[in-house]
Amino acid sequence: MPLTHRFRRQHDEAVALATKIMSATQLLLETEDAAAAQAIEADFAQLDAVLRQHFAQEDRLLYPRLMASPAPTTAGTAKAFFDEMGGLAPTFHAFSARWIVPGAIAAQPHAFAEESAAIFATLAARIAHENEELYPLADWSSADEPESDAA
């Protein structure tokens, strides 16, 4: 199994949840339905859990491993990715802290819609960048290593 299999699954889950949240947010804006707000809260809590785990695993396991690679291209690419995107986790955590509070989304649906659209766009760009460039490099660089359950 590729080194990045679990990370890719987490990406897929995060994208699916963010898409679901954005659709439900549009419905909330159109209908002001309390049930829509509650559904968003539940999906948002799930997205928060997925991303907290994902960011922690990448920061503790994947990026350090790649940055310590003896291959200069692998180490340099990982360092560049980390420097470029390492701030997304704290940004998402701050966003989450504001909106994870029960009732916050229902109380300010327009603000939530605006903020979530911005952060989800940033998240989607990071996911695409990692899936297309970093993860293939990680899988290639680990092809000769014994398999591990760490990722």
Q: How is the topology of this model organized?
A:
Blueprint: H1 5-31, H2 34-67, H3 72-85, H4 88-99, H5 104-107, H6 109-141
Helix pairs in contact: 1-2, 1-6, 2-3, 2-4, 3-6, 4-6
Explained architecture:
It is a single chain. This protein is 82% helix and 0% strand. It is built from six helices and no strands. The longest helix is centred in the middle third of the chain and has 34 residues. The protein is elongated.
Task: List the keywords.
single chain, about 150 residues, mainly alpha, disordered C terminus
Short description:
This protein has helices at 5-31, 34-67, 72-85, 88-99, 104-107, 109-141. By secondary structure, it is mainly alpha-helical.
Low-pLDDT sequence parts: 146-151
Helical percentage = over 70%
As a percent range, the share of strand residues is under 5%
Radius of gyration: 17 Å
User: What's the N-to-C terminus distance?
Assistant: 10 Å
Q: Could you give the order of the helices and strands?
A: HHHHHH
